[in-house]
Amino acid sequence: MIELAGLTKRYGDKVAVDRLTFAVRPGIVTGFLGPNGAGKSTTMRMILGLDHPTAGDVRIDGRHYAQLTDPLTYIGALLDAKAVHGGRSAYNHLLCLAQSNGIPKRRVAEVLDTVGLTAVARKKAKGFSLGMGQRLGIAGALLGDPRILMFDEPVNGLDPEGIHWIRNLMKSLAAQGRTVFVSSHLMSEMALTADHLVVIGQGRLLADTSMPDFIRENSRSYVRISSPQRERLLDVLHEAGITVVEAGGGVLEVDGGKAEQIGELAARHGIVLHELSPQQASLEEAFMQLTAESVEYHAHADPGAAAREWGTGWKGA
Ligand SMILES: Nc1ncnc2c1ncn2[C@@H]1O[C@H](COP(=O)(O)OP(=O)(O)OP(=O)(O)O)[C@@H](O)[C@H]1O
């Protein structure tokens, strides 16, 4: 279990992490989500004692990281896959870690096997691809057979096979009863991996909830309708007190509506429907809606708008 209480980190005037209070529980995958710059890495660094909180507290199974006698046997982490001595082989990198942490040598071969790097164990890490580097970082996190695992953006830059592998690994680690805490800025990825979500924006806690509750509370459900008798349908829906949104392209949307009720209403009035489909806004949309206020770096779909905002006099094509 990881417990944060009022955890805060300031860099000068900038509040990177703002009074975060939540617990990461064992037996499930907890996704740690937030837009770029939300404070995820800073929070993880404080959990590992790499950054000192300005205020508040964070404990691992009731203790501060510095108080753990063999920390790698309590908590394993992948923060930066590139933090490896490039001149060392994968085997030697892990052996050094094992020897300096009182971990038996046999664990090196075991974790290399778990992450699928046995065949390249004697190759120098500097020749590794991004995916191989991520696997080596994960091997390091698993080395001490810890009950708690923490991964910062583990799927960044990986190919679909690598993403699939990491997703299954996390789920199996949680199924073994371990605490798995994984950060991402991709809601769609978390939707497939996490059981529980902690969402932050500009350092502040926005949500601490199960995945189904997050979907229910944050996403919009509606019914999409199209009909060749659109005007007639609009009248009928209006008479029935149903609020309709015009979505463009002749499509109508009814927020929170029941497809059965609308279908029966249309049938009673002899109205032909070409589409009647219940929709749920995607998790990505729910996440963007939740964090919209706290996104630090907005992209502009219209580059001209961005340039006008910055006053660079962009003229457009
Ligand atoms: N050492 C530092 N000095 C000054 N500001 C910092 C430092 N480290 C982080 N920050 C700032 O703190 C905020 C949070 O950064 P952090 O890297 O924790 O966010 P993040 O959620 O991990 O982002 P990303 O998804 O982009 O990795 C950012 O605005 C960042 O610029």
Distinct compounds present: adenosine-5'-triphosphate
Q: Compute the number of strand runs.
A: 13
| Overall body shape | elongated
CATH superfamily membership of the largest domain: P-loop containing nucleotide triphosphate hydrolases
CATH topology annotation of the largest domain: Rossmann fold
Number of domains: 2
One letter per element, helices H and strands E, the order comes to EEEHEEHHHEHEHEEHEHEEHEHH
The first-level CATH class name of the largest domain: Alpha Beta
CATH architecture of the largest domain: 3-Layer(aba) Sandwich
Q: What is the percentage of strand-forming residues?
A: 25-35%
Structure classification: alpha/beta
Number of helices: 11
Mean pLDDT: 87
What is Rg? 25 Å
Report the biggest beta sheet as strand number plus sense, adding barrel if it closes: 6 strands, mixed
**Within the largest sheet, what's the order of strands?**
5-6-7-3-8-9
Q: State the low-pLDDT regions, or none.
A: 300-317
Head-to-tail CA distance between termini: 55 Å
Question: Helical proportion?
Answer: 25-40%
